[in-house]
Amino acid sequence: MKIALGVTGGIAAYKAAEIARRLQERNLGVQVIMTKAAQEFVRPLTFAALTGEKVITEMFAERDSNATLDSSVEHIGVAQAIDALLVAPATAATLARFAHGLAEDFLSTLYLATTAPVVVAPAMNVNMWRHQATQANLRTLRARGVTVVAPGEGYLACGMTGEGRLAETDAIVAAVLARIAQRDDLKGERLLISAGPTYEPIDPVRFLGNRSSGKMGYALAEAALRRGARVTLVSGPTALTAPAVEEFVTVETSAEMREALLGRFGNASITIMTAAVSDFAPAEVARQKITRAGGLTLELRPTADILAELASRRAPGQLLVGFAAETQNAEENARAKLERKHLDAIVLNDVSRPGLGFGSDRNAGEIITADATTMIAEMSKLEMAECVLDAVVKLRARQQTPKVTA
Question: pTM of this prediction?
Fold first, then answer.
């Protein structure tokens, strides 16, 4: 396995040499990329001697006669070859480039080109760390799935005291190892994920719907891809761009959602139902637009309970996870749904909390199984997706562990 180690311009750059050595001790190859500013603190020769690899210092360096890649596309070759990108130290400027997608040098271009997990370990002056712009950039990166190893607190090279010291080497290396291990823990699994709302037509213009944005389901699909799964995403109407899943199916009504899921459920080893499917639909759909005159009375009929139907059809070994959006008696209602529908787990969202749930980029909740409840603090939906998949991996491991009988 190979790690790209980005070294940026700060006094902590010298600590990257120890990080490279520690990664090598774990039998990981290390490809160092240095920014121009980093070379003012440490010479490339240091890293070349440690790693036995050419240190990349420029976007368009002269081509080595023995090189297999032209330097103009080297960033693509490196992006495809690495198992993780670690940037340590990561300056405020580097974080800003990553957050805003500015491909200004080899390192920032590599960040945009790679699909490997990314870990950053910031180091900077305390005021730069606390600045609103830096914190906003960190929130953006975390929302995209970047692992941030927070800096320590203490005496800084600038003479000030506070947050900003590069995290300890052990913590940085552990974060990289965790992301690598996580990357393939769903390899061989076929995930079926539903997302978004359903729209139930009233007439050719109007419909009954809900506030679901689909962001949670799309985040789960993206996170599952990163962990090696083959993913089918069945989505109701959203404004989102789908990740590069194996199959992407768009539906509109609850009936279409049911048909799409039932038709693919048999091939899935894990199904996660995040879609907010309408519980009711108009009993009749008007062929023409209903006018305002005289008001409107709707007769509603219940829609099919897709999650319960999936549970009734599942084969041994299939995992089924549901979501519960609640506004009152949240945990009680979610646990009842877990038991009633015979699910392996249910993810509870209290959507009455302001700024969370439907339409938001952030979420919080609980993962409930038959014998445990795991609290999820407020975080980005992509981070929460990782928590949900961690729980799924544990359920799968428990399911595959042979039972010992006396």
Answer: 0.74
